[in-house]
Amino acid sequence: MQQKNSVAEIPVLNVSALRGTCTHDLRGVTIEKLRHTLETVGFIYLSNHGIDDELVERMRDAVVRFHDLPQEAKDRLLINRFHRGYIPARSSTLRTSSVAEVTRPNRSDSLMIMHELAQADPAFLRGDPLQGANCWPEEFPELRTIALDYMAALSALGRDMAVALAEALGLLPTWFLPHFDRPTLFLRLLHYPHQGPVTEDAGIGAAPHTDYGFITILAQDNSGGLEVQAKNGDWIPAPPIPGTFVMNVGDILSRWSNGRFASTPHRVINRSGNRRFSQPFFFDPSMDSVIECPSSLLQAGETPRMPPVRWGDYLMERLDRNYNYRNSPSP
């Protein structure tokens, strides 16, 4: 597919215009821009988001520091049945991709961190799906504090965006919030090695795919490599813009909106000549949340495109198919 050289197709949204100090008219214009962009592009840059630049940089430095640990230190944290821990390169294949037939594993490796649970939490004690302990490297004890502070800050931003997204759909501002009383949170510390020529045999950093969930809020390094597929099939670069995050719609939000908001295919190809690092944060509903298009979004005679689905069931089906460790016998 042709690759364009402009990010004009991916607008920048001033998040401060969604907060209480802005005028009603400015908020309305911003909500309309959000609605139009997510209906047509599915990706948007977030500026003036209120997240401290220093926290973002500390998290960015922590990603590099983690991946600079000796391999044996990372291997001690191999991903557990709660989907927390180190994911080696070439150990996941996006078999559930709806936009490409993916047969080659992704070339990236990563540390998956999820919402932290108290050991007395009933879900933790029962061993419910994804309700277990995170894996922290003993060689880098500061990572836990940095990561959890970052996740708390981005969770607050995620809730702000959930309010704006409800308004953009014509729903009550608080419509989504009950579905996030125990949100499913993922912070993935990703490393893409230097990549030579892109061939079918070599694979790419992340194959074309859509995200599973509600929204993804991404901080990239300066390497570039993220590409978004336009409606006509062209691949549009989405390079880092200082002081912004990239936010995109996931499959569940698209399903909730009856397809109004586009869960857009994207991929990563590291052409920088250097290692690439990124820190996507996935803000998703509570595991028991039922995803069903609200009747108020349906026009006369229109029916939901998809049947209701429990988020936890939807998520686990995808993890089971895409990650090698979930199909390996227990040690």
From TrEMBL:
UniProt keyword terms in alphabetical order: Ethylene biosynthesis, Iron, Metal-binding, Oxidoreductase
Domain of life: Bacteria
EC id: 1.13.12.19, 1.14.20.7
Fe2OG dioxygenase domain residues: 183-285
GO-annotated molecular function: 2-oxoglutarate oxygenase/decarboxylase (ethylene-forming) activity; metal ion binding
Catalytic activity: L-arginine + 2-oxoglutarate + O2 = guanidine + L-glutamate 5-semialdehyde + succinate + CO2; 2-oxoglutarate + O2 + 2 H(+) = ethene + 3 CO2 + H2O
Gene Ontology biological-process annotations: ethylene biosynthetic process
Keyword Acetylation: no
Transmembrane segments: none
Protein name (Swiss-Prot/TrEMBL): 2-oxoglutarate-dependent ethylene/succinate-forming enzyme
